Amino acid sequence: MFLDLSSAYFQNHFMFIVCISGLMKSIVGVAGGCTRAALTQHQARMNNMADVSAKDGSQETLVNLIALLFSLLILPVVTKSMMLTWIVYFAMTSLHLTANYFAVKSVVMETFNESRFQIFTSHYLKEGLKSRNYLTVTDVNQMENLFSVNYFDPVKIKLGASFMDIIRKRKCEEAEQFLKIYENCDYLLRVSRITSSKTVIYVTFSPKATAKTQLEALYQACFVKHLLDHPYLPAKDKESEPHLELASRQYTSKTFDEFMTSLEVMKFNTNTVTFNTDSWRAEW
Question: Is 0.90 topped by the overall pTM?
Answer without folding.
Answer: no
